[in-house]
Design a protein that fits this description.
Blueprint: H1 4-41, H2 51-76, H3 84-110, E1 116-117, H4 122-133, E2 142-143, H5 146-177, H6 181-188
Antiparallel strand pairs: 1-2
Helix pairs in contact: 1-3, 2-3, 2-5, 3-4, 3-5
Length: 193
Amino acid sequence: MATFEDNRQDGQVERGSQRRTKVEFLVIGAIGVLMFLLFMFLPVRDTNVTFWDLLTFWVGLFVLSSCVVIMALREMKHTASDDLRLRMVTLLVLIVASLCFFGLVNFRLGQVPGEFVGMATHLDSMYFTFSTAITVGFGDIHASGQLGRAVVLIQMIFNVVVLASAARLIAALLRDRHIPADSAAMNNGPSRS
């Protein structure tokens, strides 16, 4: 029999989990907004890639990958919030942030002579990023330099591993949402009182 103390502790754990999920959403949302703003307002430069460009790329890739890994671990350990909508929106914002990040990187590399063919505008870089993410690749814009090809290769690996995992997680969340409570109770067997 559950006591008042047990119920109070359960409520505190649930509120703590919801608070962590909301903070996680705010952090990922801030990353998404930052990526979008940087993407839209990055000035055009015709210079070679600097140390700061490379550092920004690796830090950004690490942050985005870490967010996805943390979210996946919480889902596997069943420690994520029960708010399904918040979890799905967080994943979608993370996917958009990832696409904006790679759009930003591709745009920056498109300004370096010899790295990309056909990339001149922000829209060109987002077009290329999306066509790479969904594996269409028309060939009108493509990486021609070694650094551009390396970044596109990293983007393809990121897309397969991280974005595909996030999409799979969204599908699992949608599937779990439609399982009736009665069938879940039947799968667990009779309850013992």
